[in-house]
């Protein structure tokens, strides 16, 4: 057998947004039709002034209207980008008159090309949800006293999870009895559920013998049990009853139809209490749980297609039918198998009593050890809900509310309408009646609005950079409705499962309480039609096509030996790493049936961007993947010298680029638009120009600047799909998040201790890490009871220097440079009706000849640290509400932020730090050729954190900077040979030394290290340091957004202490440890001020201002009782505890007797 080559064909990365786009397309083309078919019904009305009317709702010919406005208009005017859903409806009068019309059921948000939604002008994204798949799951647990292990016994249970409806848990106790758990701590007999499903017992004898009839003692189900009972002397008298029960049971299971008419078991119309007719009062237990609520029992246990498939797979349907066919010679069973074949091929999507008997039979086998326990953490037992399924559930709720609203005859006449019909105006009332009187068209729209605004899986879109934009849409969460909670999720659920291999990234997950509960799709993983995660695998057989591969689920791959895709060549008989039945083992190459198609198909997109990933600890790789999504778009972008090759794909799929739709020539280029001209067609001399508008200086959700730059020049020819404009984080179509800077791992006067970073002032003057920030300021203009609010430039009592940038309408002019305190919008609010003009105001008005001002100034001003350039100011008119017509004014200010002390920088390997000091260029340590360093990092942060990949990256980047090369290194390159990464780096350093004649680049006594010179003294540092070009990022955690100071501010109403938090203008709070620190330094006066004047001494802080103005010393003792002490006294009095304050003078008389 010839050697097998792994790299004999190339597998491209699939569309990274396919899971979002496919799910939404399935909702449009299948989900809407399915829900409209479900709710296609007729509604009868008997209106007093009109007569009997029947409404027909038809599901055929439904349509989605084209959106009336584009995405840019909706974003600017704070509207939802969506399409109206309309269906045909017919009204029929009892006299034969008919009216046909189309109604709008509601507005459905439409997904844009980037995989997101625009809700009220705000971009949002819906992530996937991971839930337990519908089906049956068998589990066991120990019952009894934990201290007495010998007396503990096993209890076996089967949990039924339905797609929509109630969960069931059937339990078999150690005594062989079957129970149904209605609540977590409440159980009832299984006979109740069987009775609800159509099976009834005659007397208590059958109820006692029922567990034995389904194979407790013998797995062969029924007939052997009858023979066993017949031989028993004690129960021989009950044999006729047992036979009757068996015949009745089999007749109910095999002969009767599956869908029994259960109207007898529904709630009575007269009595709304939890009682059934007919039936014993035991049914009340089921009614309390909500299993029966005016509908059939079958609708409460809807399995769906996936649930039916999982149920039959787990119950082993072929084996079950074979056991039944093996006893067909019996006279009891043989006549009852007429409809067996018809039953087998009839798809049943609900859980019936036939399934219940199968579950009880399998549970009996499970007791005897003939069945295995299910692994609930296995991916085959989970399903992924895409955005389409979540929106279909919301459409179902909205349609249900709409139908209920339209069918409410009693309340219909009380609803507000344009005309009131009288009893004698029958003909006029019918002809004036419209379909819109019954269908307001707000239930579906409000349902979708509520879903996108408040649902836990609908998130504020992360638009920090293109990678964050893409990674959020590939995220999966176990949280949300029907899922887990952060407080109750165990470590077992959060841990990595072997079935996730190649489907869920084992690295990228949030830190904190959501660790393991929120994960990301692997780069090559896909979501199937029924919500299972699939990974691509390639057959190994020589007959298979080299380019053939298929996507398989975790359940399918358990049957085969699968080898990893991290080897370049395999000879016959070689021992290779493999996995089989969720175990990682080694096997001979001849045993392997399938192999992975790509070495990096196990990791997410963000993890695949980390070079030399195999040399990093998993925790640091997690931080590196998460921090790449926090990188800010810089003013000047630069590609990474060392990458992985995924930069092209991520930049292409990020949605920030502008690509050519067809082969064309560039006909016009400027900063705002690009015009392309298609190729000449036959018979046409000239082709029209197609203009592509660029997004310039647009604000993102995270206040970053979204700006597109032209990448082509005039007259250039481009092919379809090529980049014609770069986004805020791409260069030539490649992802570019940071800068290649010269770093050294060396200490410097303690300023880079721990995670501190020392940087060169060149970063400021050359705008290396300068970013643009766009702050949004909003003000609302509404109509009050005292009158409308005014927007004007004539604001009394304000100096002209604050109003100098306002236009005649009172709004700041676009292009103005505003400082802190400047007025952006001049607004006057009318005073209330209870306000009276004081005599002082009248006197001043008479002296200066001015009219009395009856309006207060409530202007929009530039906040602290908000100076910048105004780039946009526009009005937004909202719809009419109960408060009148509301207008809003939005002002966007562009800020240019250079890097400064307190900003956060990081690499791609989890090496993060805070800028501690900015040194002049001449003081920074420099190389032997005189080049000063850009950054100095702590060398102690590498060995303890085990992220050695950053050393390989910076050394290879140093060689690439001298050789003018860019490297794309696929992680796990040790598949080529041992120590491949080290050999590559050293060979490139040697080549760079030869090319530049710089001996310090590669020194034999210290490989990868070089001696640095102190910039202040010119002396050589004692120890050599690792020097290289590292790709460093500037993160969104900027000090300008975090620094805060307070002189005065709001106080809590209860404790009268300053509020906490920057957003509330809160103050510094002193805790127990802070008090210890002040005590240790002996700062008694400072500590007293913290506890009294700056805390809750209300009288003292009111007197403090006058004390400072008059120049008197601040009192050393508190002037009043602190509010916290006063609050404690009131709480003690509420507990009827008498309290008394003892002054210091009283203690002088108290002493020892």
UniProtKB/TrEMBL annotation:
Catalytic activity: RNA(n) + a ribonucleoside 5'-triphosphate = RNA(n+1) + diphosphate
RNA polymerase Rpb2 domain ranges (all copies): 133-198, 459-527, 1066-1142
CDD domains (alphabetical): RNA_pol_B_RPB2
Primary location: plastid
Protein location: Plastid, Chloroplast
Keyword terms: Chloroplast, DNA-directed RNA polymerase, Nucleotidyltransferase, Plastid, Transcription, Transferase
GO biological-process terms attached to the record: DNA-templated transcription
InterPro entries: DNA-dir_RNA_pol_bsu_ext_1_sf (IPR042107), DNA-dir_RNA_pol_su2 (IPR015712), DNA-dir_RNAP_su2_dom (IPR007120), DNA-dir_RNAP_su2_hyb_sf (IPR037033), RNA_pol_bsu_bac (IPR010243), RNA_pol_bsu_CS (IPR007121), RNA_pol_Rpb2_2 (IPR007642), RNA_pol_Rpb2_2_sf (IPR037034)
Disordered as annotated region, ranges: 1047-1066
A single Gene Ontology CC term: DNA-directed RNA polymerase complex
Record carries keyword Transport: no
Span of the signal peptide: none
A GO term for molecular function: ribonucleoside binding
Composition-biased stretches (Polar residues): 1049-1058
Domain DNA-directed RNA polymerase subunit 2 hybrid-binding: 668-1064
Keyword Transcription regulation listed: no
Enzyme Commission no: 2.7.7.6
Subunit note: In plastids the minimal PEP RNA polymerase catalytic core is composed of four subunits: alpha, beta, beta', and beta''. When a (nuclear-encoded) sigma factor is associated with the core the holoenzyme is formed, which can initiate transcription.
NCBIfam families xrefs: PRK00405.1
Function: DNA-dependent RNA polymerase catalyzes the transcription of DNA into RNA using the four ribonucleoside triphosphates as substrates.
Family listed: Belongs to the RNA polymerase beta chain family.
Protein name: DNA-directed RNA polymerase subunit beta
Native species: Klebsormidium flaccidum
Organism placement in taxonomy: Eukaryota, Viridiplantae, Streptophyta, Klebsormidiophyceae, Klebsormidiales
